[in-house]
């Protein structure tokens, strides 16, 4: 069983510093750093945990005697395995800018993780597929997925407050869209009625 360090269960400004590009800190052990970015070599959290478990047991991915993946907890084997990363990096920018930042030599060789099964609710139009998430969505889904994969406890909304302002803005934008459609529809109906009255 993989345990979540207490440091991973809390999100704080002290433990989660922000840096303005091109300022990027140097990491003593890059292998312990994970970059959340959909690169060509990116893996899911499940794949990363599974890979670490197999590496520690000395079994490759093709071995028939391989133990269950690290993300799968069994009652018969309560073995504890440390999470294989200590730092998580999120690039907060537009997608066109994030590609440039990712290609920086200080980041491009870091192991990447992808949140492929999640879809964005971001209200601004973007020339990307719907699995390209807003930064706060990526942070939220990453923490929730990691918790569900590594904890015996059932998720009970521990990270939901992270999405408070995002959800607030989403609802406000949706409300404005509905009002715009309603006003536009009334104007169209009024214009049609005026035209018909003129014809008669």
From TrEMBL:
EC category name: transferase
Family affiliation: Belongs to the TDD superfamily. DTWD1 family.
Region (Disordered): 54-76
Cell compartment(s), UniProt: Nucleus
Molecular function via GO: tRNA-uridine aminocarboxypropyltransferase activity
Pfam entry (one): DTW
Catalytic activity: a uridine in tRNA + S-adenosyl-L-methionine = a 3-[(3S)-3-amino-3-carboxypropyl]uridine in tRNA + S-methyl-5'-thioadenosine + H(+)
UniProt entry tagged with the keyword Nucleus: yes
EC number from the UniProt entry: 2.5.1.25
Main location: nucleus
Cellular component, GO annotation: nucleus
GO BP annotations listed: tRNA modification
The protein, known as: tRNA-uridine aminocarboxypropyltransferase 1
Biological role: Catalyzes the formation of 3-(3-amino-3-carboxypropyl)uridine (acp3U) at position 20 in the D-loop of several cytoplasmic tRNAs (acp3U(20)).
The UniProt record lists the keyword Transport: no
Residue stretches making up the DTW domain: 17-178
The entry's keywords: Nucleus, S-adenosyl-L-methionine, Transferase, tRNA processing
């Amino acid at each position: 069983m993989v345990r979540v360090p207490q440091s991973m269960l809390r999100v704080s400004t002290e433990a989660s510093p922000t840096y303005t590009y091109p300022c990027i800190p140097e990491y003593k052990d890059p292998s312990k750093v994970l970059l959340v970015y959909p690169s060509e070599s990116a893996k899911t959290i499940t794949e990363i945990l599974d890979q670490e478990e197999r590496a520690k047991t000395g079994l490759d991915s093709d071995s028939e005697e391989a133990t269950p993946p690290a993300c799968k907890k069994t009652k018969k084997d309560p073995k504890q395995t440390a999470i294989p990363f200590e730092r998580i990096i999120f690039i907060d920018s537009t997608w066109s800018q994030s590609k440039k930042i990712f290609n920086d030599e200080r980041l491009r060789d870091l192991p990447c993780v992808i949140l492929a099964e999640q879809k964005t609710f971001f209200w601004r139009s973007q020339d990307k597929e719907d699995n390209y998430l807003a930064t706060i969505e990526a942070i939220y889904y990453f923490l929730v997925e990691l918790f569900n994969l590594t904890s015996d406890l059932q998720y009970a909304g521990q990270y939901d407050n992270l999405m408070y302002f995002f959800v607030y803005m989403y609802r406000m934008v949706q409300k404005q869209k509905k009002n715009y459609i309603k006003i536009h529809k009334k104007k169209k109906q009024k214009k049609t009625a005026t035209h018909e009255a003129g014809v008669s």
